[in-house]
Amino acid sequence: MKRVLFVCVENSNRSQMAEAFAHIHGGDGVEALSAGSKPSGQINPKAVRFMSELGYDLSTHASKSLDEIDGEFDAVITMGCGDNCPWVPARFREDWGLPDPKHMDDDGYRAVRDEISSRVKSLLAQL
């Protein structure tokens, strides 16, 4: 089983959607987690709404801190938070540099969501 961690600052949008897509695309072969360097404590309602369009219930997720995550990972993906994301041990690391969609209109939010889905598929194919 591959372990993958998705990290952003608030752990309420991008990293949550990435975790969801890893579950969707990776199934039982992937342990996917997400966390934030300064978690908001809640999942953005827009993320819940736009993932529900794809049949995924993001309301079952929780916004959590990197302090709650331990162990090593096959991959750690940051979402473009730069220095705000501390080092987490991993064999593969990458920063996707995705814009935070929380203030985007619906089309913009869907575009970021769909880009995350595509990148997660590519990542899982590499592992």
TrEMBL record:
Stored Pfam families: LMWPc
Keywords assigned by UniProt, alphabetized: Arsenical resistance
InterPro entries from the UniProt entry: Ptyr_pPase, Ptyr_pPase_sf
Domain Phosphotyrosine protein phosphatase I: 2-126
Name recorded for this polypeptide: Protein-tyrosine-phosphatase
Source organism of the structure: Lysobacter niastensis
